[in-house]
Design goal:
Elements: H1 2-15, H2 18-34, H3 43-50, H4 65-76, H5 79-92, H6 95-120, E1 123-124, E2 130-131, H7 134-142, H8 147-160, H9 164-183, E3 189-192, E4 195-198, H10 199-216, H11 219-248, H12 253-266, H13 275-290, H14 296-301, H15 309-316, H16 318-338, H17 355-365, H18 370-401, H19 403-406, H20 408-422, H21 425-449, H22 451-467
Antiparallel strand pairs: 1-2, 3-4
Helix pairs in contact: 1-21, 2-6, 2-21, 3-15, 4-11, 4-18, 5-13, 5-16, 5-17, 6-7, 6-12, 6-13, 6-15, 6-16, 6-22, 7-8, 7-21, 8-18, 8-21, 9-10, 9-18, 9-20, 9-21, 10-18, 10-20, 11-16, 11-18, 16-17, 17-18, 18-20
Length: 472
C-alpha cells in the first residue's frame, strides 16, 4: 500500500507541471480574450435563465437549467470549498488562495465555452437518449477519428469521479464532531492487509454506502431533484455562519487580503519561497473546487432541456463565481482570521490538514455550536457531492460500453466509498488530482479547437437577445 501511495503521489506531482498549468490557465485566458470578455457582460441574463425565465420544458434533454447548475454545484460547492481550501492553505500558505482566484476567473470563460459546446455537440447513447459531455463534443464536433481522445477522457473520468475525497472528509468531520460527544475513539482500529483500519471510519463508510445507493440508481433526474433541494439551503446556512464569524473579526479582513496578495508572489509560507509551487497548489485546488476545464460540469449541463447552447454556457459560468470566488474566499477568511491554521503548518498527520482544520476554525469562532452547524453543512454538501459524482462515471461507462452497462459503474462507485472513508487524505487528494489532470487534457484540447464554433453561436445568440427575439 505504501508503494502505491508513493507512486500516486509522484505521478500527481509530475502531471501537475507547467504544461498542464499552461493548458488550464492559459486556455482560460485564451477563451477570455477570444470572446472579448463578452460572456462577463451577461451575468444578469445568466441569472434570469437560472431562475427559469427561459426554461423550455418541451425540448430534448433530461433536466432544467436550475437542476443542471444545482447538480454541478453539488459536486463542487461543498468539500472542495470547505476542505479543499484548508488543504490549499496548509500546503501552499495564504498565497495559494490568490491563485485559486486567478484560476477561477479564467475558469468562468472556460466553463462558458466548454458547456456551450456540450449542448452544441450532443450525441445519443445506445438507447437513443440525448447526452452531452466532452466525449460527445469530441466525437460529434471533431469526428469519429478523434474517438480515442474521447475514450481517454472517459477512462480517467472513471477515476476522477470516484467519491473517495468526499467520503474521506465527511468521515473525518463526523469523527471530529461525534467522537468526543458519543464517546468513541476514532483511533481504535484493526489491521487489514498491513493497513490500520478505523472501526468508526469503516462504520461511517458502510452507512454512507447504503444512503447513497438509495438515490444514485435513480439516474440524473432523481439526482438533479435531490440536489436542487439540498444544496441551496446549505449554501445559505454556510453563508450566514461565515458572515457572522467575519463580523466578529472585521478589522482583520484587510490584513488577511494583504497577506494573501503578499504571499502569492513571495511564496514565503509553507513551501519555502517557491512561488511556482504556490501557483500549482492554487491551480490544483481551484480545479478541484470549480472543475473548470476538467470536463465534469459539461456532462451535466449537456443534459439540459434547451436548444440554445449559449444559454446553458451562461448558466454554467456562474459556477466558478459562486463556488470559488465567493464560497472559497469566505472559507479562507474564516481559517486565516481565526489563525488556527498556523498550529498545523508542517504537521505530519495529513488528516489535520483538511476538514478538521476548518472545523477547528468554526469552533474557535463560535464556541460550542460552530462545529455542529458546520458539520451539518458538511454532511449535506458531501452527500450531495457523492450523488452527483456517480452520474459522471455512469455517463462515461455508458459511452464506452453502452447505456445498459452504464449503471455497472455505480457498483464500483459505492464500493469505493468505504475505501475513501478509511484511507489517508494524502492518497485520496493525489489520486483525484491525477484523474482530473488527465481529464483536462482532452477537454481543453477539444474546446480550444472548437472555440470558433462556440463563438459564432454566441454572437448569433447575443444579437437575437438584443433584438428581443426571446420571450420571458
Amino acid at each position: 500500500m505504501g508503494l502505491i501511495q508513493d507512486a500516486v503521489s509522484g505521478f500527481a506531482g509530475w502531471i501537475w507541471g507547467v504544461p498542464l498549468l499552461i493548458l488550464l490557465i492559459g486556455g482560460g485566458l485564451f477563451f477570455m480574450v477570444y470572446s472579448r470578455f463578452m460572456p462577463f457582460l451577461y451575468f444578469k441574463h445568466a441569472i434570469l435563465v437560472l431562475l427559469g425565465k427561459y426554461d423550455e420544458k418541451d425540448k430534448e434533454g433530461q433536466i432544467s437549467h436550475y437542476e443542471a447548475l444545482s447538480t454541478a454545484l453539488a459536486a463542487t460547492v461543498g468539500m472542495g470549498n470547505i476542505s479543499g481550501v484548508a488543504v490549499a492553505i496548509t500546503m501552499g500558505g495564504p498565497g495559494a488562495i490568490f491563485w485559486m482566484w486567478v484560476s477561477a476567473f479564467f475558469g468562468i470563460a472556460t466553463k462558458f465555452f466548454t458547456c456551450t459546446l456540450a449542448v452544441m455537440y450532443r450525441g445519443r447513447d445506445s438507447e437513443g437518449e440525448v447526452r452531452g459531455g466532452p466525449m460527445y463534443v469530441i466525437t460529434e464536433g471533431l469526428g469519429q477519428k478523434w474517438r480515442p481522445l474521447a475514450v481517454f477522457f472517459c477512462i480517467f473520468a472513471l477515476v476522477g469521479a470516484l467519491p473517495i475525497f468526499q467520503a474521506n472528509q465527511l468521515t473525518a468531520a463526523l469523527n471530529t464532531v461525534l467522537g468526543p460527544n458519543i464517546g468513541y475513539d476514532p483511533a481504535d482500529s484493526f489491521t487489514f492487509l498491513g493497513a490500520q483500519i478505523s472501526y468508526a471510519s469503516l462504520t461511517i463508510g458502510a452507512i454512507l454506502t447504503v444512503l447513497v445507493s438509495t438515490v444514485i440508481f435513480g439516474g440524473i433526474k432523481k439526482i438533479g431533484k435531490v440536489a436542487a433541494r439540498m444544496v441551496p439551503s446549505m449554501v445559505v446556512l454556510y453563508f450566514i455562519l461565515v458572515v457572522y464569524i467575519l463580523l466578529q473579526n472585521v478589522g482583520e479582513i484587510p490584513g488577511i487580503f494583504a497577506a494573501i496578495l503578499d504571499e502569492a508572489f513571495t511564496g514565503s509560507a509553507i513551501l519555502g519561497g517557491g512561488v511556482g509551487a504556490v501557483i500549482i497548489v492554487g491551480a490544483k485546488r481551484a480545479a478541484f473546487s470549480n472543475e473548470a476545464g476538467i470536463g465534469t460540469a459539461p456532462m451535466v449541463h449537456g443534459d439540459t432541456k434547451t436548444d440554445e447552447p449559449v444559454r446553458e454556457g451562461l448558466v454554467a459560468m456562474l459556477g466558478p463565481a459562486i463556488d470559488t470566488l465567493l464560497v472559497c474566499t469566505l472559507t479562507a477568511l474564516v481559517i486565516l482570521g481565526t489563525g488556527v491554521y498556523e498550529e498545523f503548518v508542517g504537521a505530519e498527520d495529513t488528516g489535520l490538514l483538511g476538514v478538521t482544520l476548518t472545523l477547528k476554525a468554526f469552533n474557535a469562532a463560535i464556541p460550542g455550536v460552530g462545529g455542529y452547524l458546520l458539520g451539518l453543512c458538511i454532511l449535506v454538501f458531501a452527500v450531495s457531492s457523492l450523488l452527483s459524482y456517480s452520474y459522471y462515471g455512469v455517463k462515461c461507462m455508458s459511452f464506452m460500453f453502452g447505456a445498459k452497462r452504464g449503471d455497472l459503474y455505480n457498483y464500483i462507485y459505492i464500493g469505493t466509498i468505504i475505501l475513501g472513508a478509511v484511507t489517508s487524505l494524502g492518497f485520496v487528494v493525489n489520486l483525484i488530482d491525477s484523474g482530473f489532470a488527465l481529464m483536462a487534457i482532452p477537454t481543453m484540447i477539444s474546446a480550444i479547437i472548437l472555440a470558433p464554433k462556440a463563438w459564432a453561436a454566441s454572437q448569433d445568440y447575443f444579437a437575437r437577445l438584443k433584438r428581443g427575439d426571446f420571450k420571458r
